[in-house]
Amino acid sequence: MTYRTAWQHALYGVDGFYRRERPAAHFRTSVHASELFGRAIARLARQVGTDQVTDIGAGSGELGRVLRAEGLKVLEIELDDQLPDRLTGLVVANEWLDNVPCELAEWDENGVPHYLTADLTPGAVVEGNDLEWLQRWWPGEPGDRAEIGLARDEAWAAVVDRIQHGTALAIDYGHVADDRPPYGTLTGFRGGRECEPVLDGTCDITAHVALDSLAAAVNGHLQTQHDALTQLGVSARRPPLAQATSDPTGYLTALSAAGEAAELLDRSGLGAFGWVAVRAL
Hints:
By secondary structure, this protein is α/β, with parallel strands linked by helices. It has helices spanning 3-12, 17-20, 30-33, 35-47, 62-69, 128-137, 150-162, 211-218, 225-231, 243-246, 248-265, and strands at 52-56, 73-77, 87-94, 104-107, 113-116, 122-125, 145-147, 163-172, 174-175, 187-190, 193-195, 204-206, 209-210, 221-224, 274-280. It contains eleven helices and 15 strands. It has a six-stranded mixed beta sheet with strand order 2-1-3-8-15-14, sandwiched between helices. It has a four-stranded antiparallel beta sheet with strand order 6-5-4-7, with no helix packed on it. A three-stranded antiparallel beta sheet has the order 11-10-12. Helix 4 (35-47) packs across helix 5 (62-69) and helix 7 packs parallel to helix 8. The longest helix is centred in the last third of the chain and has 18 residues, at 248-265. The two termini are 40 Å apart.
């Protein structure tokens, strides 16, 4: 079987990782870093004119709790749930697409890409739409390895197609054509630590998203999380030192918020994540 099929079973099969585990126990996202992230999403919902947010890949509902506290209605869809036929309002997928299994490819000594099997050995030659995707978005050389992003593009396009008068926002770590990693990004996470991506259902298996391909698939707008959150009012500016004397409690609260914002905006960390937004009419 191809690696994609084995990956699907390892995460979403009967005894798969996401049938038994909660995401927050194994990795940390912007949602866990600060409630400032959720409040920014709430501001975005109001900007696009909706009080309804759908959270795809909701985990333990951390984002939903913040959004409800902001007065919004929230529909939560977990990683192993089926999508409803219709969606409305703001639809957010924060670190969902990196857990959508995709085919892996490796180029042989003649420059021909082959699918990788479950044991990461070369299998059949890549053909058809997958080959077209590689040629356009991730051309390689002998010895290179890639994650074929077509499955992610199609998954996100299917979400966008379900939206009735709303906005879709995919947020994930990834790369673009000028910065493709030559040997791919496949990895695993277990208990908050990066680990070997074994296919026995004991760890999360993930790979970065080809963000430029994703944006093109839905005619969406791509920007960094740093820029998007800055536009939504998230600031890492420290409070004035004089406030420490006049309002020490307020100063500590503001200082803590500035530290959390700095993590969300960090261009070498969470701030480098990509936001792909598209308005569905």
